[in-house]
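task queued by scheduler; priority normal; single chain, no ligands, no partner chains; default sampling; output format set to structure tokens
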Amino acid sequence: MHISAWLLNGLYITYVVLVLSSIIVVISENRNASKSLAWILALIFLPVIGLLLYLLFGQSLRHETLLTKSNRAKLFNSNKLPDVDIESLPFSENNKQLIKMCNRLESSRFYPNNDVRIYVRGKDKFDDLLYDIRQAQKFIHIQYFIFRDDVLGRSIRDALVEAVERGVEVRLLYDDMGCFTVNRRFFKNMAKRGVEVQAYMRIFQFRPSWRLNFRNHRKIVVIDGIVGYIGGMNIADRYVNGDKDLSWRDTHMRIAGQAVHGLQMSFAVDWCFENKNVLSDEKYFPRLSPVGNTGVQIILSGPIGPWNTIAMMCEKIVSMAHDYVYIQTPYFLPTDSLVYALQVAALSGVDVRIMIPNRTDWVVMRWGSFSYISQMLSAGVKIYLYQPGMLHAKTIVADDELVSIGSANFDFRSFEHNFETNALVYCKDQALRVKEDFMIDAQHCVLIDNLEQWRQRPFIQKLFESVVRLISPVL
């Protein structure tokens, strides 16, 4: 009994020390105040559970690094394309500032003279992707948050295996959480047949870099260093045929030209982080001639490093808009600074429109998104609720001159917790195309622009929205 008492006291003291030290860490990191307060309250008022949640989901990686200095130097020195004189570009001063900002934040180079193709139908995107995979001669690098073992997933798997049999190097990087429900035999089968397969941040592998809360949400393909894909579509049948009674509307993009180097850099950083193999050979970054007239900048963002790059990019786009800014996102849980930026833009006379799905694959995030609508309406922002199904597109278009397409949602998780990649497209033709797509989608939406009418929704709904919003920084 005496030993048991000592043991219990020891465990209690250890637990208290862990909780107090965790609270000190949360405070000293100077995070978003609401997020810090949420974690402190969880640590104090949720015994054991709060500490466990913090250890799994609450730690910050901002002071850690993905690559060693030597590996980083190898990768960045492999991209030998000449620098572009930003001041000489035929863009507005605001767009030049945006290019400079993103370059300083994440060394995101601007690539001129690309050919860009935008998809809003999954079938079109995956038909072209399969075609390009079958044309590959040297290497294929493919990275997805979700890679399902279904009809589409198996067709891409077979195409990758056929490429290996032709002598093509094939590397596949998938997120372990995103593919949690996929039988691991699916990936092991590919590995046995010659595909180099790597899971990102394995859930049940404890190591210094292991964090359950930080997921790789990127959707990237690079083929021979000359063709690449980026956007919101994962590899799953639902992006082609829908999911039960829920159709899926998404946006993706094919890039041919020098900007593929930026996609290759993104893949190479993640690949090196997982297995320390530096993909810096010249064949991965071939010298490319101009193939189009579209300027592209590839933006990397993640929980490691001092900057929330994509959040800052979004804030800059909103703040510099003169005429309009249209946003499509499946989840709308912006940071406080982005809320203010959207309100300031709308109050300044900018036409600000935000489109979100009325039905989502994650109902909790739906209520969280709805909690911000009153703030938006009060400033004159127009909210569109997409009716046909799940709007999964992550696009921003502004002033007929700038488009953002990528993997990042307009929410806390994408801005602060996930590894994401977006493409900034500086092109009037592509901006008009995305603007037209927005207007077409708007015809299938319910427009919310009456604040008083919106406030009439049931009290229990508003209460639930507020609760979800309270915990949204830690979701």
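post-processing summary
- The first helix runs from residue 2 to 28.
- The mean pLDDT is 89.
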